[in-house]
Design goal:
Blueprint (H helix, E strand, L loop, with lengths): L20 H6 L6 E4 L4 E6 L7 E5 L2 E5 L8 E3 L6 E6 L5 E6 L4 E5 L5 E5 L6 E6 L5 E6 L4 E5 L4 E6 L6 E6 L6 E6 L3 E6 L5 E6 L4 E6 L5 E6 L2 E6 L5 E6 L6 E6 L5 E6 L3 E6 L5 E6 L4 E6 L5 E6 L3 E6 L17 H5 L23 H7 L3 H8 L2 H6 L1 H14 L2 H5 L4 H14 L6 H15 L7 H63 L1
Antiparallel strand pairs: 1-28, 2-3, 3-4, 4-5, 6-7, 7-8, 8-9, 10-11, 11-12, 12-13, 14-15, 15-16, 16-17, 18-19, 19-20, 20-21, 22-23, 23-24, 24-25, 26-27, 27-28
GO cellular component, one term: nucleolus
Subcellular location: Nucleus, Nucleolus
Keywords: Nucleus, Repeat, rRNA processing, WD repeat
């Protein structure tokens, strides 16, 4: 009697995630710490100087957190209403923030009461920042104005009223102390020079602008609004370099890593996307529980802080790299130890002893070997196999069909077993690798259990699901065939045009030769 041959399970290639250096790097952040704030977090800003504390603006408070603290180490709460956009100065000693009542407060990080209060705006101030000379503040307001303030005298230097909608974001140039940029809900980004009385450049983003970012070199500008993140070349007059559309909802915040080689964007779709600034392709992404309003990365890239609409602050720290001063390496066996005997060729007088390999059969193979078709099918209809390795279930069904025992294995089942069988077929019949086998199985099930249709609501529901799945697949196939017909027509037209052009060129060439010969 011939030895039993196990069922051959068709192996299909799996489209696994590509592991890159970026994937390994960004996965190096530990499990996040979550801190609950009093309201939606509209701004997170890291101090540029050690120990790199960060300011969180939420509701009517500004909380200062240490890098590893879960409780605020300092709180500024001298606001009548909501506070917005708390931002550190470059030396980390001063903090400026806007408010709902239109005033701007300047705080000393080591104190509590405001050092200065700037009055002049008539509506909520959502944008506050320092120019790189450290002695001037720029602001943007819902009254459509962008102002410049002098810190020592607490007076207004100049006011620009060029936007036609709320001014909600902005940034200052680190290269030129007179240049700052504002973004507005009027779909424009404007570049201002404090030495002029009007903007020097206007860029049309196309959607309400939620965030802007200037590269450290000052040559590239990034704007975010709608689902788009756009990169502009400032030195070429605001030329669009690339438009990215990787989010499904509005992009709300942007930030760069310390080297400027990675750009991060947060969105209301609960994702943070990380782009390479050389290719502008997504190299990694983080998924969060709710919509994201603010995002910040510490100066040394050790901490990622994300603020969400539900008031939760999500903090991730990089795992510290353990470096031992005197690492003691275990002595590894020599290379010859591993390859010893592998290349030995037996001689003519040698007697070779082969160790018999014991073949372990699976449960369904044992049942098939003993011709228990129904039990073999039951073995592969268990939930772990159906969910994780459906190719095994389909392979056993194909083997039963080859033997001619599939109909008998499908017959004689109770309501629960038929429900399980129909659930699997309805779910997997649309997969191209399983369709040929499962269509036959579905046909047999329909023939066998047609007389009992209407006796069980559960089985009837599964039959309807199967019908719906097959109907949708047929509609998709018809649409694809229509598209294929259109493409064939287009390709045929292009081929005819190409042949016609070649014939015309050949005829022109022949005519020229004839005329040349006539002249001779």
């Amino acid at each position: 009697m011939a030895a039993y041959k196990p069922v051959v399970v068709q192996a299909c290639p799996k489209l696994g995630e590509r592991i890159t250096q970026d994937t390994l790097y960004w996965r190096g952040y530990k499990t996040p710490v979550q801190i609950k704030e009093f309201g939606a977090i509209n701004k997170i800003d890291f101090s540029p100087s050690p120990p790199y504390n960060y300011a969180v603006t939420a509701s009517s408070r500004i909380h200062i957190y240490g890098r590893y603290s879960q409780e605020p180490i300092k709180t500024f709460s001298r606001f009548r209403d909501a506070a917005y956009c708390a931002t550190y100065r470059d030396d980390g000693r001063l903090l400026a923030a806007g408010s709902e009542d239109g005033s701007i407060c300047l705080f000393d990080v080591s104190g509590k009461a405001p050092l200065r209060q700037f009055e002049g705006h008539t509506k909520p101030v959502h944008l506050v920042g320092f120019l790189s000379d450290k002695y001037r503040i720029f602001s943007g307001c819902d009254d459509y104005s962008s102002n410049l303030w002098d810190i020592p005298t607490a007076t207004e230097i100049i006011s620009y009223s060029e936007h036609t909608d709320y001014v909600r974001c902005g940034c200052a140039s680190k290269v030129n102390a007179d240049v700052f940029i504002t973004g507005s809900y009027d779909h424009t980004v404007k570049l201002f020079d404090a030495r002029t009385k009007s903007s020097v450049m206007t860029i049309e983003h196309g959607h309400p602008v939620e965030s802007v970012l200037l590269f450290p070199s000052g040559g590239l500008l990034v704007s975010a609004g709608g689902r788009y993140v756009k990169v502009w070349d400032v030195l070429k007059g605001g030329q669009l370099l690339v438009s990215l559309k990787n989010h499904h909802k509005t992009v709300t915040c942007l930030c760069l890593n310390s080297s400027g080689q990675r750009l991060l964007s947060g969105s209301l779709d609960r994702h943070v996307k990380i782009y390479s600034t050389t290719s502008y392709k997504v190299v990694h992404s983080f998924n969060y529980a709710t919509s994201i309003l603010s995002l910040a990365l510490s100066p040394e890239d050790e901490t990622i802080v994300v603020g969400m609409t539900n008031g939760v602050l999500n903090v991730k720290h990089r795992k510290p790299e353990e470096k031992s001063e005197n690492p003691q390496k275990k002595r590894q066996p020599a290379y010859r130890t591993y390859v010893k005997g592998r290349t030995y060729m037996p001689k003519q007088e040698d007697f070779c002893v082969s160790k018999p390999v014991k073949r372990v059969l699976r449960k369904y193979d044992k049942l098939l070997r003993s011709f228990q078709s129904s039990k073999a099918l039951d073995a592969v209809l268990e939930p772990p196999i159906m969910l994780h390795t459906p190719e095994v279930t389909v392979a056993v069904m194909q083997e039963l069909h080859r033997r001619g025992t599939l109909r008998s294995a499908l017959a004689g089942r109770d309501e629960k077993q038929v429900n399980l069988l129909l659930t699997f077929v309805a779910r997997r019949v649309i997969e191209p690798r399983f369709t040929p086998v499962l269509v036959t199985v579905a046909d047999m099930i329909t023939d066998i259990y047609q007389p009992v249709v209407g006796q069980s609501a559960i089985v009837d529901k599964q039959f309807l699901k199967l019908q719906e799945a097959i109907g949708k697949e047929i509609d998709y196939q018809e649409e694809l065939l229509e598209v294929l017909g259109m493409m064939d027509t287009l390709f045929a037209t292009f081929t005819k045009k190409k042949d016609t052009c070649l014939e015309e060129n050949r005829s022109n060439g022949v005519t020229e030769i004839i005329e040349t010969n006539t002249n001779y």
